[in-house]
C-alpha cells in the first residue's frame, strides 16, 4: 500500500529558450541553497557523486541550488547547517534552460537530463558532512 505524499509534486520540465526564467518553488520542488564559501557546496557535490540530481549554479548569489521534493526538508535541523537555506512555496528562483551550462549568469552545474530531484536524505547527509568538515562539529541547537 502506497503512502500519500504530504505535498503532491507537480510535473515539471526546465524552461526552454535562451534565458533563465523565474519559477515557483514548492510545487514540483523545493530549493536547497548552499553557499560557495568555505567549499561547502563543492564538497557536497563531491560527496553526493552520482546520487546528485540537477544542480543550478548561481554566480550572482554565490550559491549552488539542489532541487528536492516539496516539504521534504521540513524536519531538518537547520541550526546545524549555517548559511544553508531551504526555499519553498513562497519563493521563486531563476532556472536556466535545460541545456544551458556555459556563459555568464545562472546555469546548470549538473543538468536535469536523467532526473532533477536529489534524494533529501542523501543531500542532508552530504550537507552535514561538508559543513562539519568546513566548520567543525556543530553544537546541538538549544531547545
Polypeptide structure, described:
The chain is an alpha+beta fold. The strands form two sheets. It has a five-stranded antiparallel β-sheet with strand order 5-2-4-3-7. Strands 1-6 form a two-stranded antiparallel sheet. It is built from two helices and seven strands, in the order E-E-H-E-E-E-E-E-H. A hairpin with a 4-residue loop joins strand 3 and strand 4 (63-68). It is globular.
Task: From the structure above, extract its key features.
143 residues; alpha+beta; five-stranded antiparallel β-sheet; globular; disordered N terminus
In short:
By secondary structure, the chain is an alpha+beta fold. It has 2 helices and 7 strands; from the N terminus they run E-E-H-E-E-E-E-E-H. Strand 3 and strand 4 form a beta hairpin.
Question: How do the SSEs run, as a string of H and E?
Answer: EEHEEEEEH
Distance between the termini: 36 Å
Radius of gyration: 15 Å
Total separate domains: 1
Multimeric status of the protein? single chain
Question: In order across it, which strands form the biggest sheet?
Answer: 5-2-4-3-7
Mean pLDDT: 86
Biggest sheet details: 5 strands, antiparallel
User: Number of DSSP strands?
Assistant: 7
Q: What is the helical fraction, as a range of percent?
A: 10-25%
Which class do the helix and strand fractions yield?
Answer: alpha+beta
Report the total helices. Answer: 2
Low-pLDDT stretches are: 1-6
Overall form: globular
Strand proportion, as a percent range, falls in: 15-25%
Amino acid at each position: 500500500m502506497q503512502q500519500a505524499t504530504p505535498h503532491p509534486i507537480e510535473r515539471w520540465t526546465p524552461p526552454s529558450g535562451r534565458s533563465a526564467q523565474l519559477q515557483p518553488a514548492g510545487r514540483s520542488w523545493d530549493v536547497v541553497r548552499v553557499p560557495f564559501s568555505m567549499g561547502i557546496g563543492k564538497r557536497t557535490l563531491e560527496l553526493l557523486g552520482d546520487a546528485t540530481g540537477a544542480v543550478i549554479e548561481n554566480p550572482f548569489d554565490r550559491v549552488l541550488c539542489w532541487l528536492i521534493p516539496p516539504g521534504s526538508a521540513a524536519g531538518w535541523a537547520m541550526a546545524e547547517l549555517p548559511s544553508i537555506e531551504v526555499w519553498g512555496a513562497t519563493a521563486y528562483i531563476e532556472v536556466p534552460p535545460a541545456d544551458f551550462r556555459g556563459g555568464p549568469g545562472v546555469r546548470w552545474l549538473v543538468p536535469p537530463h536523467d532526473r532533477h530531484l536529489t534524494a533529501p536524505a542523501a543531500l542532508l547527509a552530504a550537507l552535514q558532512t561538508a559543513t562539519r568538515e568546513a566548520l567543525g562539529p556543530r553544537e546541538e541547537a538549544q531547545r
